[in-house]
Specification:
- There is one protein chain.
- By secondary structure, the chain is of the alpha/beta class.
- The chain has one domain: Ribonuclease E inhibitor RraA/RraA-like (Glucose Oxidase, domain 1, 3-Layer(bba) Sandwich), CATH 3.50.30.
- It has 6 helices and 14 strands.
- Strand 13 and strand 14 form a beta hairpin.
- Helix 2 packs across helix 6 and helix 4 runs parallel beside helix 5.
- The longest helix has 23 residues.
- It starts with 7 loop residues before the first strand and ends in an 11-residue tail after the last helix.
Amino acid sequence: MIEDAPRIRVESPLRRPLASQVAALRNVPTGFVVDALGGGSVLDYRIKPVVPEQSAFCGPAITCGAGPADNLAVFAALEHLQPGDVIVAATAGHAGCAVTGDLLLGMARNCGAVAFVTDGCVRDIPGIRGVGLPCFALGVTPNTPAREGPGTVGFPIVAGGVAIATGDIVVGDQDGVVVVAFDRIDEVIARLDTVRAAEADLDAKVKAGLRLPPFLKR
């Protein structure tokens, strides 16, 4: 006889990057982060901020494997949040119902979360705007999910076509969401000065009248 699986499995301990590493990536445009990564690690282009003016965030991921039409794992994650965390909830791209609404997001904010990201849908836009927590989703629907599980908290997931592990740094703005894998954080931070310098140089040249990029002749 096969025993029933636990409704929620929690990975322990939950790794997190250093505060200094998060600070070094805070307020960095997602495009700069992607360039420092050498491309990639960007969630599906359809995953965008539900409230555009509430979009900028940066923090360590705490992953939830919620699965389609269920959000028990997201509720379970609340117990493990630390100030500054970003909840990333994988639903297998299910768009038939919301994985969260304003009340759950309000609890997440009260527990210290700085953003919520999902490859599924959410609901209650007026309430989400009032909560003030950056919320990125595939779409919006009023349909409600179940709270039955099974699900996971802290285990690796795939959301928006990107593999994400707890402790990766997630950065978002109006362009979308990019994930910096835990073992590449220092590498990306080290490359940011070069990216900033190249962007600033080309920006100055464009404003001065540049018509053709230098690489075109090459």
